[in-house]
Design brief:
The complex is a heterodimer of chains A (about 220) and B (about 475).
Chain A: H1 4-23, H2 28-53, H3 56-83, H4 91-94, H5 97-118, H6 130-144, H7 148-169, H8 176-202
Helix pairs in contact in A: 1-2, 1-6, 2-3, 2-7, 3-7, 3-8, 5-6, 6-7, 7-8
Chain B: H1 6-23, H2 29-53, E1 57-59, E2 63-65, H3 67-92, H4 101-120, H5 124-142, H6 148-179, H7 184-189, H8 196-213, H9 221-228, H10 231-253, H11 262-282, H12 289-310, H13 312-343, H14 354-357, H15 359-372, H16 379-393, H17 397-423, H18 441-456, H19 462-472
C-alpha cells in the first residue's frame, strides 16, 4: 500500500509530464485529451487527499475537476473542432513545437530552482514546487500559442495549477471551492460563448491578428 | 424623521445594481432602460450617503468600509450612473447589435455590481472573486457591435486578465498560508511579520492584479478591449475598472504596514514609471482615438502607482488623480462615442472639423482631453503636481523628472490629436458633412465639470475622505 506522500509525488510527476507533453503537441485533439488526462490525475490526487483526511471540500474540487475540466470543456472543444475539421492542427505553432518543448523543460527547471531557493523552507510538502511549475507552463502555453482552442487549454492548465497549490498547501483557504467554481464559470464562458461568437463572426478559431488591433 | 443608518446605505449600494441587472431583463425595452437608470442613480446616492455619513467599520464577517472604499465607491457609482444614462443614446446608434438592450443593461448592472462588491467586502478572497466577476460580466459587453475586432478584443481580454488573476490567486494562497486569514481589515490593523511569503504575496499580487490594472508589460489586452467596447463601457473600463483592480491590489499592499519594505516600493516604482513612460510614448502614434485614450488611462495608472510607491503627499496625489481622472476620462469616452457614431470611424486622420459638425461634443472633448492629461486647474493637475512634489520632497529627483516627461509627452499627444480633430478643416475637395447628433453630450459636460471642480474646490466630506484614505495607506496630509 502506497503512503500519502508517495501517492502525491507519483500523481504530481504524472501531472508534470502531461504539462510537458502539452507543450510538445501541435494537434488540437491530442491536446484536449492531454488536458483532460491532467485534470483526471489532479482529481485523483484531490480524491485521495479527501479520502485520507475526510475533507468534503477536496472531494467537491475533485468532482469539479472531473465534471468541468476533464469532461465538459473537452467535450465542447471537440465540438468546435468538428465544426472546423481543417483547424485540427495549430499551423502557426507546428514548426515550433520542438522549440516550445525545449523552452518548457528549461522553464520547468528554472521554476523548480526558484521555488527551492525561496519558498521550499516554508512549504516542505513533497512536490510543493510542482503547482508553481505547472502555473509557469500554463502561462507559456497562453503566451506562445495563437489557436484559441489551445489557449483555452493553457487557461485550464493554469486553473489546475491553482487547485493543485490549494490542495497541497492551503487546504483551509476560505471560499476555495467558490473560487474554483468561478474559475470554471469563466472557462465555460470562454469556450461556450466567446468561441461560438468568434466562430460566427470571424469564421475561424485562430486569433485573427487584425490590423486594427495593433499599435 | 431619522435617516437610515450606514448598514442600509451599504446594502443599497450593493443591491441596487444587482436589482437593476435583474429588472433590466424585463421584456419591455423602455422599462428595462428605466430600471437600469434608477438602479444606477440609487447606487450613486447610497455611495454619497456613505461618504457623508462616516460609515467606516465592519458589517458582519464579510463586509467592511473605510475611507478608501468610500472614495472608490463614489468614483465607481458616479461613472456607472452617467454611463448608464449615456447608454441609451449610444445604443440607438448601434446597427446590428449583438446584445438586446435588455441583456446590455443587465450585463452593465452585473459589471457595476461586481466592482461595487470588490469595494465593500473585507475578505481578500471575495475581493478576488469580485475582480474575476468583472471579467465575466464585461467580456460580453465588448462584443456588442458584432465586429471581428470586437470579438478578438473580448477574447484577449478574458484570457489575459484571467491568466493574471490566477497569479493573484497564487498570491492570496501564499498570504493565507503565512497569516492564516484573508480579512483585509484585520491584516491592515495588525500587519503580520514581514516574512518572505508575505513580501512574495504582495509582489505576485502586483503582477496578477497588475494585468487588470494595465501595467506594462501585462497591459496587452487593455488597448484592444477599451477601444472595441461600446463607449459607455469603455468609460467604465478606463474610468473605474482599472482603479477597482488597483484597489484590490492596495488591500493586499496594506498588509505590509508602514514603512513599506524598500524592495516592494522599488518594485511598484519600477512598474509605475515603466507603465507611464511606455504608455505616454505609445499613445503618440495611435490611429484610433479610442486606443489613444486607452493608452492615456494606462499612463495615469502608472502615475498613480508611482504616487503610491513614493508614499507621503504623493500618495494623496495618486488618489486625487484617480478620482478626477475617472470623471474626465469617462467624459472623453462619451464624446468619443458621439464622434464615432457621427463620423462612422475611429481613425484620427478621418475625423476633422468637429467644431462645426459637433460643437458641443467637440468643446467637451477638448476640455475632457485637457482634464485627462492634467491641465490646470483640473483635479488631475493637482494630483500630478502632488506626485511630483512628493518625489522632490524625498529627493527622488530622477523620479520627478521621469514623471514630468511622461506627463508632458502624454499631454502633447492627446491634446494635439484632439485639437486636430476638432479644429482642423477637412480636405477642401470633401463634401460638406452633415451635422451630427449631439444627444447625450450633457453627461460628458457633467463629468468634465466634476473633474474641474475637484481641482478648484475643497469639497465637504470628499476632501476629508481623500486625506483619510491616504493616511490609511501610510500617506501624509498635504
Amino acid at each position: 500500500m502506497l503512503s500519502t506522500p508517495e501517492v502525491v509525488a507519483l500523481l504530481g510527476v504524472g501531472i508534470l509530464l502531461t504539462a510537458l507533453y502539452l507543450q510538445s503537441e501541435s494537434f488540437v485533439n491530442p491536446l484536449i485529451t492531454g488536458i483532460a488526462f491532467q485534470s483526471l490525475l489532479l482529481a485523483a490526487l484531490l480524491g485521495w487527499l479527501a479520502w485520507v483526511e475526510g475533507n468534503v471540500d477536496l472531494l467537491l474540487l475533485a468532482g469539479l475537476a472531473v465534471g468541468i475540466r476533464a469532461v465538459f470543456i473537452p467535450f465542447v472543444l471537440r465540438r468546435q473542432i468538428r465544426a472546423f475539421r481543417w483547424r485540427v492542427r495549430e499551423l502557426h505553432a507546428a514548426h515550433r513545437v520542438t522549440g516550445h518543448a525545449l523552452a518548457a523543460v528549461a522553464l520547468a527547471i528554472i521554476a523548480w530552482f526558484v521555488f527551492q531557493q525561496t519558498l521550499a523552507g516554508i512549504f516542505p510538502e513533497p512536490g510543493a514546487a510542482l503547482p508553481f511549475v505547472l502555473l509557469v507552463e500554463g502561462l507559456l502555453m497562453l503566451a506562445t500559442r495563437r489557436n484559441t482552442l489551445v489557449q483555452v487549454i493553457g487557461y485550464l492548465e493554469e486553473e489546475n495549477a491553482v487547485v493543485y497549490a490549494g490542495a497541497l498547501f492551503a487546504r483551509n483557504f476560505p471560499l476555495f471551492v467558490e473560487v474554483v467554481v468561478f474559475l470554471d464559470v469563466l472557462g465555460v464562458v470562454l469556450v461556450g460563448v466567446i468561441l461560438s461568437i468568434q466562430r460566427d463572426v470571424t469564421g475561424s478559431p485562430e486569433e485573427a491578428g487584425l490590423e486594427e488591433l495593433t499599435g | 424623521m431619522t435617516l437610515p443608518g450606514p448598514a442600509f446605505w451599504l446594502f443599497l449600494v450593493l443591491l441596487a445594481p444587482a436589482a437593476a441587472a435583474l429588472l433590466a431583463l424585463l421584456p419591455n425595452a423602455r422599462a428595462s432602460q428605466w430600471a437600469a437608470r434608477t438602479g444606477a442613480v440609487l447606487a450613486f446616492l447610497a455611495a454619497v450617503a456613505l461618504l457623508a455619513g462616516g460609515a467606516s467599520g465592519t458589517y458582519g464577517p464579510y463586509l467592511g468600509l473605510d475611507s478608501l472604499s468610500e472614495l472608490f465607491l463614489l468614483m465607481v457609482t458616479g461613472v456607472y450612473a452617467t454611463s448608464t444614462w449615456y447608454s441609451a443614446r449610444y445604443l440607438s446608434g448601434v446597427t446590428r447589435p449583438f446584445l438586446t438592450p435588455q441583456i446590455y443593461y443587465a450585463l452593465l448592472g452585473a459589471f457595476a455590481f461586481a466592482m461595487i462588491a470588490v469595494l465593500v467586502v473585507s475578505d481578500l478572497g471575495l475581493m478576488w472573486i469580485g475582480i474575476e466577476a468583472t471579467t465575466v460580466a464585461s467580456a460580453l459587453l465588448v462584443v456588442l457591435e458584432r465586429k471581428p475586432t470586437s470579438v478578438e478584443a473580448a477574447w484577449r481580454y478574458t484570457l489575459i486578465a484571467s491568466a493574471g488573476l490566477t497569479i493573484a490567486l497564487f498570491a492570496l494562497l501564499l498570504l493565507y498560508t503565512d497569516t492564516g486569514t484573508l480579512n483585509a481589515f484585520a491584516l491592515a490593523a495588525h500587519p503580520p511579520a514581514l516574512t518572505l511569503p508575505v513580501e512574495m504575496a504582495v509582489a505576485l499580487a502586483l503582477v496578477g492584479y497588475g494585468t487588470k490594472i494595465g501595467l506594462f508589460p501585462m497591459h496587452t489586452w487593455l488597448p484592444d478591449a477599451h477601444s472595441e467596447a461600446p463607449s459607455p463601457v469603455s468609460a467604465m473600463f478606463s474610468g473605474v475598472l482599472l482603479p477597482t483592480a488597483l484597489y484590490a491590489f492596495l488591500r493586499v499592499f496594506a498588509v505590509l504596514g508602514t514603512p513599506v519594505p524598500a524592495a516592494i516600493s522599488d518594485l511598484l516604482l519600477a512598474f509605475g514609471l515603466a507603465t507611464a513612460l511606455v504608455a505616454a510614448f505609445l499613445l503618440q502614434n495611435q490611429r484610433s482615438f479610442k486606443r489613444m485614450f486607452a493608452y492615456s488611462s494606462m499612463e495615469v495608472m502608472g502615475l498613480a502607482l508611482v504616487g503610491i510607491s513614493l508614499g507621503g503627499v504623493a500618495l494623496y496625489g495618486a488618489l486625487l488623480l484617480l478620482l478626477a481622472h475617472a470623471f474626465a476620462k469617462s467624459a472623453a469616452f462619451y464624446c468619443a462615442g458621439n464622434v464615432l457614431q457621427t463620423t462612422g470611424t475611429s481613425h484620427i486622420d478621418d475625423v476633422r472639423d468637429l467644431r462645426h459638425r459637433l460643437p458641443w461634443t467637440g468643446t467637451a472633448w477638448v476640455l475632457a482631453g485637457l482634464g485627462v492629461t492634467g491641465a490646470p486647474p483640473f483635479g488631475t493637475f493637482a494630483g500630478e503636481l502632488l506626485i511630483v512634489t512628493g518625489a522632490l520632497a524625498i529627493g527622488a529627483y530622477w523620479v520627478a523628472a521621469v514623471v514630468v516627461i511622461a506627463i508632458l509627452v502624454a499631454f502633447l499627444g492627446v491634446n494635439g490629436q484632439i485639437g486636430r480633430m476638432v479644429f482642423a478643416q477637412g480636405r477642401p475637395d470633401a463634401t460638406a458633412p452633415a451635422p451630427g447628433n449631439e444627444r447625450g453630450v450633457g453627461w460628458a459636460w457633467l463629468n468634465v465639470a466634476v473633474a474641474f471642480v475637484l481641482g478648484v474646490a475643497s469639497l465637504p466630506y470628499l476632501s476629508d475622505t481623500v486625506r483619510a484614505a491616504a493616511v490609511l495607506l501610510g500617506g501624509r496630509l498635504p
